[in-house]
Amino acid sequence: MDDAQNENFPPASTPPAVSGSTDAAAPAHRTPGHAPAPVQAPSAVRAPAASAGAAVRPEDIGGKTAISEQAVAKVAAIAARAVDGVYALGTGSGRALGAVRDAVGGSSATQGVHVEVGETEVAVDVTLVAVYGIPLTRIADAVRTAVYSAVESLVGLRVVEVNVDVNDVQIPGAPEGRPDKARPGSAPS
Description:
- The chain is an alpha+beta fold.
- It contains four helices and four strands; from the N terminus they run H-H-E-H-E-E-H-E.
- The chain is elongated and about 60 Å long.
- The relative contact order is 0.15.
């Protein structure tokens, strides 16, 4: 080996550095009064630098993304539940079945939401119970807008339609199973 190749290696007489070593662990053959030679950390291995301004774009990388109907339905359900005036998602019998499913450890996160997912498009159907006192068309329009925005921005699929079925109206003070969220102006029980 020539000297240029040998410059990254310590001389053969220098013992290799041990991480966390101290003078007490230094070799015994040193003479008193001589400080140990400074040990240089090995240079880090670096990946080849990308040329300036040439960032990797997602569309330049191969592969396919598959988004399940369950994932899209959860995004749509969360968006629909957040709309003011939505008492619950699903039909009365569906909510009763959801309460049983919750009691045995199941999940009703997508109750009242049905989606059809294609490669680039999605159609969403939402069935809900509205709170009495808020115009039903206003609730339906707000649900449609919220679901459309959430699915397009979070899922990345083009929403072709959001159908809203207002199945029932919850009258304040009337007993009703287990709601998805508390009614406006009511205290949690």
